[in-house]
């Protein structure tokens, strides 16, 4: 079943915004992170794919840098931090 | 100069939505196209990069298929058509 509805989501006073969609029953969002540092909590496990710019992320201990084209996965029912010096576009896939 | 402001844009009754940002003076948008066919007109030349799903596009004559990871460029002051069977996430870079 196709689900055509797109949903705009905004977090952190509009500094993180995304468009949620669903394809073949899998949920995902395409979004942008403005410069700053943000803390997220997860329900489902998710994969964050950097599609423009460079994102730093801390999943557990220590910050790592994720350039455009790289990705990281975050367990469900957990939390992670990201920070961006410049705006970063990402795709988030719920696993 | 950093420009932190993200702008939500919606077209075709919400069937195409995007988040606009600017990095190092270059404008871009991350967005999603719901199933359907859409006609766009360009001001600046732009590069459309498919980051999730598969998009068909007609720039000039004939439809071509652009799978995830591929891109196409559209001249400024022109027009193009896209169609999607399932939702497609894209990055649009203004050139």
Concise account of the structure shown:
The structure is a homodimer of 95-residue chains. By secondary structure, chain A is mainly β.
Q: How would you describe this structure in keywords?
A:
homodimer, mainly beta, Jelly Rolls, 4-stranded antiparallel beta sheet, 10 strands, 0% helix
Structure description:
Two copies of one chain form a homodimer. In chain A, the strands form two sheets. In chain A, strands 1-2-3-10-5-8 form a six-stranded antiparallel β-sheet, with no helix packed on it. Chain A has a four-stranded antiparallel β-sheet with strand order 4-9-6-7, with no helix packed on it. Chain A is mainly beta and 95 residues long. Chain A is built from no helices and ten strands. The two termini of chain A are 19 Å apart. In chain A, β2 and β3 form a beta hairpin. At the A-B interface, β1, β2, β3, β5 and β10 of A face β1, β2, β3, β5 and β10 of B.
Q: What is the alpha-carbon Rg of chain A in Å?
A: 13 Å
Largest interchain contact: A-B, 34 and 34 residues
Total number of beta strands of chain A: 10
| Overall pLDDT level of chain A | 95
Helix and strand layout, with pairings?
The structure is a homodimer of 95-residue chains.
Chain A: E1 3-11, E2 16-23, E3 26-33, E4 36-41, E5 46-52, E6 54-58, E7 63-67, E8 71-74, E9 79-84, E10 88-94
Antiparallel strand pairs in A: 1-2, 2-3, 3-10, 4-9, 5-8, 5-10, 6-7, 6-9
């Amino acid at each position: 079943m196709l689900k055509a509805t797109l949903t705009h989501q905004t977090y952190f006073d509009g500094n993180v915004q995304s468009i949620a969609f669903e394809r073949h029953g899998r949920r995902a969002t395409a979004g942008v992170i403005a410069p700053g540092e943000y803390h997220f909590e997860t329900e489902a496990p998710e994969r964050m794919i950097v599609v423009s710019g460079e994102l730093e992320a801390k999943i557990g201990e220590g910050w790592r840098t994720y350039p455009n084209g790289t990705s990281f996965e975050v367990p469900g029912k957990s939390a992670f931090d990201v920070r961006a010096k410049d705006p970063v576009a990402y795709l988030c896939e719920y696993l």
